[in-house]
Amino acid sequence: MTTATERAGYPLERIRNDFPILQQSIHGHPLAYLDNAASTQKPRAVIDCIRRVYETDYSNVHRGVHSLSQRATDRYEAARCRLQAFLKARHSHEIIFVRGATEGINLVAQSFGRSHLKAGDEILITAMEHHANIVPWQMLSEQIGTRLVVAPIDRQGELQLDALIDRLSAKTRLVAVTQVSNALGTINPVREIIEQAHARGIPVLVDGAQAVPHLAVDVTALDCDFYVLSGHKLYGPSGIGVLYGKEQWLKAMPPYQGGGDMIRRVTFEKTEYNGLPYKFEAGTPNIVDTIALGAAVDYLEAIGLDAIAAHEAELLAYATRRALEIPGLTLIGTARHKGAILSFTLDRIHPHDIGTLLDMQGIAIRAGHHCAMPVMDFFGVPATARASFGLYNTLAEVDALMDGLGEIIKVFR
Ligand code: 7TS
What we know:
By secondary structure, the chain is of the alpha/beta class. The protein has helices at residues 4-7, 12-17, 44-57, 67-87, 101-116, 135-144, 161-166, 190-199, 219-222, 247-252, 287-303, 305-324, 351-359, 373-379, 395-412, and strands spanning 25-26, 29-30, 32-33, 95-98, 122-126, 147-151, 172-178, 204-207, 226-230, 241-245, 263-266, 271-273, 329-331, 341-346, 363-364, 366-368, 384-388.
């Protein structure tokens, strides 16, 4: 069985062959890797890029006059331009390399938050945020007395947009919202949220960790003020990610960390900071993984995000249809606009047992609260089982998952 996207030329078999890790068996079964929302696997292009940089072009960046340092610097800065083009940012210095979405949000909370917000100011988030877009704001609240305001979701796991708009007050100083929920799959109307916030002069941070692997993003068209992503969810290495910030904000924000590279001149009396983007990249950066993130983006764009989105939408539609035929299965997250995430529970079977029993059949899913405990509380469950699809998944793997769930139900009957 193939998706219509495959029949229209989506090269699924070639894509699968690009991922060495997928060519293995787990507990005697072919691996079905359905944990892509946590982290995606890496194509050979990314793995080879890492090896080649260490073998031929590696040195520290920005500081050396020798050839290797210049080559490493050129490649590191080329990756910045690559990510600028990928996100369609106006300037390459609006691309700040960080460890991942988490560090990007913490940077904004500490640098923007401490310099632009004061006691009593409000930060508006949604009830479906990952902990990475909750806790940094709570930490800021403890430090300077800001207040966290939460826009509600409904039983489908959709954002109540009107309620969000109602909560935009004269005190709101930032809206921080996920583009795609990792626990529910919901795709939020970020463009509309940004329009509404901007009409009131409020900047918006978009958490794009779950969006960029699945849909084409244009930060300039979106007009968001900040955008964060994680490389490891984007078929790139872990430990590298991007904070995009509009030049006007980044210029007005103080450094997040101090150290080498982020300075122009240091004396014991005073330090003059470097310009963008270096002001926010203290210390030796994650050189090789940054370059490899550029390779990951090349790989994704060669396939095409629209084709990837179409293939994944078919996987999700088929998985949803089959899941609804399973007795005792409840879908958690049934929004009209959803990314390729299927969160569910089975009557009387703990999600961790589902995860463990599926693993015995070679099927990798995630079970837990997905770092979105308030979402679990809202739906009154301790955890969900979550299958999340990526560009290399097949309808046969969806079948394996659903057949596996059928077997589990028989065991527990
Ligand atoms: N925001 C969202 C929406 C996420 O899904 C995640 C990670 C993060 C932020 C944090 O990203 P990090 O790379 O900095 O850790 N989400 C998940 C997940 O769903 N399962 O494992 C990690």
